[in-house]
Amino acid sequence: MLALHCLATAEGEVALWAEDSDLAPKRTGRSDRAHPFAVSTDVLTDRLGVAAKARTLPVLLPSHPSTPVDSPELVRDPLADHPKPRGAVTLRPWLVPVLGCDPGTLAAELSRLIDHADDVRPGSSVRFVATVAALAEDLVDRGRVLPAIVAEPDGPAARWRPVLSGVDAARFARLRDSMPPVLRAEQHESDLLDGRAADDVLRVLLDSLVDAAVRVRLVDHPIAPPGGFRAVEEASGALLHALVDDPRIDADAGQVDLLTRQLDTWRSGAVSEAPVRTCLRLKSPAQAEDWEIEFLLQAADDPSVLIPAQQVWDGESVLHRWVSRPQELLIADLARAGRIFPDLDTALRDSRPHGMKIDTEGAHRFLSHSPALDQAGFGVLLPSWWRASSGLGLRLTTTSRGAAGTVTRNTVLGKNELVDYRWDLALGDLTLSEHEMKELAKAKVPLVKVRGQWVHLDQRRLAAGLAFLERSGTGQMTAGEVIDLAGMPAEDDAFPVPVLGIGGTGWLADLLSGAAEAKLEPVDPPAGFTALLRPYQRRGLAWLSFLDRLGLGACLADDMGLGKTVQLLALETASRTTPKPPTLLVCPMSVVGNWQREAEKFAPRLRVHVHHGADRMSGVDLADAVADADLVITTYALAARDAAELAELTWDRIVLDEAQNIKNSASRQAQAVRALPARHRVALTGTPVENRLAELWSIMDFANPGLLGPLAKFRARYAVPVERYGDEDAAARLRRVTGPFVLRRLKTDPAIIDDLPDKIEMKQLCNLTTEQATLYRAVVDDMLTKIDESEGVQRKGLVLATMTKLKQVCNHPAQFLGDGSRVGGRSGKLARLEEILEEALAEGDRALCFTQFAGFGAMLVPYLSARFDTDVLFLHGGTPKKQRDAMVERFQAGDGPSIFLLSLKAGGTGLTLTAANHVIHLDRWWNPAVEDQATDRAFRIGQRRDVQVRKFVCIGTLEERIDKMIEQKKALAQLVVGAGEDWLTELSTAELRELVTLSAEAIGE
Known about the structure:
The protein contains 38 helices and 32 strands. By secondary structure, it is of the alpha/beta class. Helix 4 (124-141) packs across helix 6 and helix 28 (770-787) packs antiparallel against helix 29.
């Protein structure tokens, strides 16, 4: 595995280099400066696919006297016998092979490099450059850039430069202070000790990224007018072309110098990049005697330092650490702000201005100019009640028959039911009375006081709202129309003012407020359903049934381990009292077996058909099988592959398990499942949002198509405001729209956790990949060929060796082959492990993973480290006691790695690991007592959370058959099975053949 790093060079490039975990950290002589485990540029080019200039650079790195220190991202094989470095750690220069890239070109590759295959793990410097690139994109998006002419080796060049002020300057300062040292570690004669200055490195990097980002946007939008330029305009024309195409400016030197000075003057007038900026704070009459603007000075890189102007004039401020003459800076800034907001000229008549009194109209003028002041780099502090818009909008009140709590299974509801409605005008949360609306209509000043609160009122919007009430104030509409309104954006062309909210009484209001689940009476498990539902699961069943009767899609997003499967199976059983088309359930290949077994166990009346495998049905055979089934189970891959055929069949309901599999709405499988027709849709997921809000859009657009509008508008309305700017209003609007259709319960909720047992055990049935199945059959065939010719000790040895081989095959082909081949995408168990760990880590949980094979654990450590970008602890028989104790202490501390791999023999007893609340048995010891002992590392005194225990079993293999034998003889398991696997050697050849023969259902796609 490679650990990938970035290095900012003095020439303005970003150089890529990498460490290789397979190269031993060999000791070198003091005269040998070649980095011993840095990969060559040829290897780097081949692995990364990046075209760049190859060279070697001296890099200052933390080092022992004879070898560099491994970076934190470098994960070595814990069983490898590498020499242990000795001696104190100091900075030492090493010659490192690098690929030099233009920052702008590299920015386009960063996401691919960060999400590279499992054999490349990005270091902190790579992620830092990605963060700087995101800042550059944000600055360009907001127009915080200006053109400049800079001197370069080839002559004057036109470049786009960032404008940093206010919050952006603080962001720059935070980035500078958090810069990974390796990014600025290129050694120069002038800085032998600690590399280049962080501020210089970051400015060059950000400048390059901003320039590249602007040029990408201007490729199809040239800013120079068509045609030629007169001689006097030659330099200006060359500048405009250089800002889009080749940055070199080919024009008269004198004219270029004049343009350079003019651009510098423009820049200095547009923004001040001083370490201290002036802030203007508006105080309303609720905060002062009258409207007032207060002047303050603020440190750009530490916004908590905010000094009133009065202290500045008295010389009592702490600003001297940033600026020598803060009084002069205050006067200069106020004069510059006066060009934007001329009312400030009044304050400048005072020799020591510290603020100014204004009337209500002046306050409104200041509020109107506040965006321009902010853009110019001034701090603008406004009252908490201020909104750029008035907050004036429409509020809909509906009345429907019967509250959600009175709805029974026989109640007839639907989207076509008529409900009464009434529209009102509201200011934020205040619904306006008729008298208040008349008084506001008479107001002449945009700032008005309503019920003790100051608000900004748009008179045109008020008039439009009043006209709408006269036309459509009351009436009736269908429930479906109300639901469509709930999904509309606040600003919509159908209404003259925004729709602020929908409320009222009855089942429809309960649904849209998100209160339906709490008000619905819990539903008892249906006849024929054998599982005992806990209270919260019965409420979940009632909620699903409620939306089912309405024909509205649902997203059951209960926390991992809370029983989404049994709730869905209960819904299926309850809804099958009358004949209807089957339900299509789409899930990952790794849980097909789980669904099949759970349905057999808890809903035996359901007729289940599994559609997967190379010999799956098609055409008339498939149609007949589906017609005779209640539940059809298939995988995401097959839903995409067989989309046309599945779409021709009639489905009552489509269910997506692990619905985060369609988080990429543009993927083939997401488009395929969204296109399948059905009366009702249900998404099951413990992580409705993993990385971006667009993932939630994809899931909700499956459940209720069109509810959130097109993806492009969703991004503009919700994703960008929430993800980029932390807009709480946009987040609240999104919760209001999606809340009625998403049910999310957490293990941390006392109402839920009190209802759960202390330990939840479950089987995770996994499929084999085709490669695994091929190897499995080969091992079985080899044993069966030899077994009849052997006896006694030889036969026992052959059987035990075969069992070990088969378990290794079930784990992973690379473990069985021992060839060091790639890890990802070849094992059904590993695929399920990744899904479980991804969800657990997203929730902040921690996991113990037990295996009886130290080699398998060593193989997983680098893969899981790269996959989840985290350290993975590994305890095995060769771990020294001191290191073992340090691992336990680090894991238990709560701030260490979240994944702990342990070999069953070394870690199955004698440890307290209560920081974990997930225990995963990757392969089975086939002795319940031994497995329980391992589980008890987490489930013991000191454990405050419920422990979820998962035992991996490959379906259709000896693992499942032995597991069933143990379950059937649970009470005598210790006597029957003993402490190991010797009992298997006593089976007859026929029994062995039946035990190890591979079933067709074992093979995934």
